[in-house]
Amino acid sequence: xxxxxxxxxxxxxxxxxxxxxxxxxxxxxxxxxxxxxxxxxxxxxxxxxxxxxxxxxxxxxxxxxxxxxxxxxxxxxxxxxxxxxxxxxxxxxxxxxxxxxxxxxxxxxxxxxxxxxxxxxxxxxxxxxxxxxxxxxxxxxxxxxxxxxxxxxxxxxxxxxxxxxxxxxxxxxxxxxxxxxxxxxxxxxxxxxxxxxxxxxxxxxxxxxxxxxxxxxxxxxxxxxxxxxxxxxxxxxxxxxxxxxxxxxxxxxxxxxxxxxxxxxxxxxxxxxxxxxxxxxxxxxxxxxxxxxxxxxxxxxxxxxxxxxxxxxxxxxxxxxxxxxxxxxxxxxxxxxxxxxxxxxxxxxxxxxxxxxxxxxxxxxxxxxxxxxxxxxxxxxxxxxxxxxxxxxxxxxxxxxxxxxxxxxxxxxxxxxxxxxxxxxxxxxxxxxxxxxxxxxxxxxxxxxxxxxxxxxxxxxxxxxxxxxxxxxxxxxxxxxxxx
Length: 484
What we know:
two-stranded parallel ribbon; 40% helix; eight-stranded parallel beta barrel; TIM Barrel; 14 strands; alpha/beta; glycosidase; Glyco_hydro_1; hydrolase
């Protein structure tokens, strides 16, 4: 029996990028330095060593701030999307995508973060960018905070550990909502907000050697982000009543290594902890299991009067999430083979193939993640990151054949359709990254996700010429047939 796969009318097929990985132009038109601008090229660090890839110290930051070049800091140059966005958006329009997820660089609008007046040149850039998206028939999906904050706030406020940063972020959020209220109807507050527990500097501007108790600092900073996110929901509903605003989670689905109850419990705890962040942002309260963890670890969260009411009243309209791979949990992993994955590693699953970067490929895991999230929250879901990082070869005639990427996308989209048949409400799907860009974790260029190729190597050499890959035409056809 042949199954015809079609998706709901108005389904938002699209792509995703982040300002700090694509724009470049790190010191142009009044932009201030952000945490992303201090990220060094870590191409020689083991692909599975996320602790080293995400490690940062005061000494490293001082060196980065002194070095004004882009040689060792690839995110400073990105793929020059800042200057080339008309060409890139024309290609994406040709591909037929309905939406593009991108982010606004905080330091383009408020270079230090704490200014009272925004940088008009930064605001004008996003006016032009959003207008060009709309011109190409692309609905903007904008993330307010995607792995970057002003370095001034890191050095003078301790990043998100300071309650003052909430008010500073609210000023930024209010500014962009008022400026772009007629252009943007879909918003996301914090990219992968859960990541702060794994890489405190990237998500929270927390430099570990500046804090006596880093875990305490992390969870206090997270609380401030929860409050900032709730304020963003409140403001969005007031300023743009017809808009929707969601939270965003890294989906870290865990299977038990065996049916040993201890392994099952380990997987359960990992899955439960992964959902703590959406429990707060969608259910509006801190769950009992995390309160227990705080008690047992001696963590105390300072809350201002009214915080609990704010979290309860201003919950996210939808849940967006990234899904790249699943994980395996064991009560005792000593001696077991391990693999890498999105922002963390784990025990190898012998039933799954792996990517060039050692990430396990598990399409069925996406269906499970969708079902788990929807059964728990009953709110619309949006897959805003899914894709395959791989080595690509440009043939002598300029073509790029990437059947491995097509197979990855096809198999995950098939499982997304199965979840729709299961009754899950899905708003859309944006391929990460729709165009080659700088890797988040290692700042490499050769780890390519794009359906559009960018001629640039790890050291920044290349013409920056854009080329359509085979996957470009495959996705174009899929969108034109609404996933048929």
